[in-house]
Design brief:
Chain A is mainly alpha-helical. Helix content of chain A is 47%, strand content 10%. The longest helix of chain A has 17 residues, at 44-60.
Chain lengths: 105, 411
């Protein structure tokens, strides 16, 4: 666990780079994490997915799995890989300030 | 008479029926169990069929043999569950069953049709599954004459039933081809959507090392988009391609469609329930046990067994008007066959990942955790007898339902 300064905000992050307090998140933090994850600019399409994940994650207390996102946010798996390359569910969870998705046990 | 209705006579449902018939008064409780299939499969045994270690007769028995007298057994698929009316509609005769308490134990099934190219003209020719008895038998026949090449083992998506079975398949395949004097002509590739060999970091490291020693190559974070059955390759969403001569697929697992029709399922048709009591957050007289429950623990018989242990005592309290206690901890306990007459054992729960050590007696075992041993292999083989004769009949096992840290090493 470490405190990091991202886009001028102090945020708590675990060893894997997931924020541990989703309340510390805002849209500037998201854009900064996205840049660090190799996504230079968040488009409307990105935001549609991030907004869904924020809403779903805050309601359920956990980050949605890839299947949950594709089933409920109206975006295909293929598009998810284009928007958030290499592990889209993990990447979007990071950018959305949520924990690691627990789809796999 | 109060009515307890159990949907599904698989591992979890059968154990609940047996346990509750013993615990609940015959004069006060009527217990009914519904299932659409006549045959009970010992699913952990499917793994051994492709390698000729088990035959079909080792893994099948009539369901009826395990339903106790005093429990009504109805054969029918489920049309819909209507929790607001406390009733279930059966497909057979359109009959309704009323209940006071409902246990959903409809399990998880494989869906090869959900991956393009998988269940098409090469199905059971060069593409197989081993999560059904048909698939396991077809693969056994195929392997008797296979002359070698590249075998790719691919998990379509998690969660799956028995998350260690694909690893066991890979390690048994390594052993089997050694025995056949074919190993130098077989390339084994394990393509998984996970970042490593297993879900939890310490076990993933141990198991990853074992796979490396056995010359089984792991292709990680491979999420399959489609199979090209003519070009004999699998293609991932990020456009990686793996060619194969034989594909062993673990298809997408989903819960029963009746759960989806009833509006009780998540995106994979699993039922949301409290992780410590199995009670539905929407309906206080509805529970889900076994693979049907949307819980962050393994979908495995051992989990169902520990879950039923916790549920049975708790249900007696609840039926008397007391609150349920949060007793279930996600405990899972799985033997992992590693080939050459050896095996591993892992023991873990919601909070504690699999660790090395000894089980069940600290320091003594006889089973070693996360380490290969012959005792673990014999434990796994003995388990089939225990399953048919003790577990399914709802008898107590001399093992605690909740996980213990005794005998486990943290470093």
């Amino acid at each position: 666990m470490a405190t990091k300064v991202i886009a001028g905000h102090q945020v708590q992050m675990n060893d894997e780079g997931f924020m541990t307090n989703p309340q510390e998140w805002d849209r500037e933090v998201a854009a900064a994490i996205a840049q660090a994850e190799g996504i230079p600019e968040l488009t409307l399409q990105h935001w549609r997915v991030i907004d869904f994940c924020r809403q779903d994650g805050m309601a359920s207390g956990k980050a949605p799995t890839l299947r949950r996102i594709t089933a409920l946010a109206g975006v295909s798996t293929k598009d998810m890989f284009a928007l958030f390359p290499k592990g889209p569910a993990k990447k979007v969870a990071k950018i959305s300030g949520l924990g690691k998705p627990e789809g796999c046990v | 008479m109060k009515k307890l209705l159990i949907l599904g006579a698989g591992t979890a449902g059968t154990m609940v029926a047996n346990r509750m018939r013993r615990l609940l008064d015959d004069n006060e409780w009527r217990i009914t169990i519904v299932d659409q299939h006549e045959t009970h499969y010992y699913q952990p045994g499917f793994l051994f069929i492709p390698f000729g270690m088990y035959s079909k007769s080792d893994v099948v028995k009539p369901k009826r043999d395990f339903i106790p007298s005093g429990v009504e057994f109805i054969m029918s698929p489920i049309e819909i569950i209507e929790p607001t009316k406390n009733r279930v509609k059966l497909i057979k005769d359109g009959r309704y069953l009323q209940y006071d308490f409902l246990v959903i134990a409809l399990g998880a099934q494989t869906h090869p049709d959900q991956t393009p190219g998988l269940r098409e003209h090469e199905w059971y020719k060069t593409i197989f599954d081993f999560y059904t008895v048909e698939g396991a038998l077809a693969l056994a026949k195929y392997l008797r004459t296979w002359q070698g090449g590249r075998m790719v083992i691919n998990i379509v998506e998690n969660p799956i039933k028995c998350p260690v079975a694909p690893l066991e398949f890979a390690m048994l395949a390594d052993w089997f081809f050694h025995e056949q004097n074919l190993r130098d002509r077989v390339e084994l590739i394990y393509a998984t959507p996970l970042p490593g060999a297993f879900t939890k970091p310490i076990a993933s490291k141990h198991l990853g090392d074992i796979l490396e020693r056995k010359n089984i190559k792991v292709e990680s974070e491979f999420l399959i988009e489609r199979v090209d059955p003519d070009a004999k390759k699998i293609v991932s969403y990020d456009e990686r391609e793996i060619e194969y001569d034989t594909l062993v697929s673990i298809p997408l697992n989903m819960g029963n469609e009746a759960v989806a029709r009833s509006g009780l399922g998540n995106e994979l048709n699993y039922v949301a329930v409290d992780p410590h009591t199995f009670i539905s957050p929407q309906y206080p007289n509805v529970f889900a046990l076994g693979d049907a429950a949307a819980l962050p623990t393994s979908k495995a018989g051992s989990v169902a067994h520990f879950a039923v242990d916790c549920f049975a005592e708790n249900f007696l309290r609840y039926a008397d008007g007391l609150e349920m206690l949060p007793t279930f901890d996600g405990h899972a306990n799985c033997f992992i066959e590693s080939g050459f007459g050896k095996g591993l054992l892992i023991d873990f729960n919601y909070d504690t990942e699999p660790l090395p050590g000894m089980y069940p007696l600290p320091g003594l075992g006889p089973f070693s955790l996360l380490q290969e041993s012959e005792a673990n292999h014999w434990g796994k083989l003995m388990f089939r007898w225990m399953y048919w004769n003790i577990l399914l009949k709802g008898q107590e096992m001399p093992l605690p339902a909740r996980m213990s840290m005794a005998g486990k090493w943290k470093n």
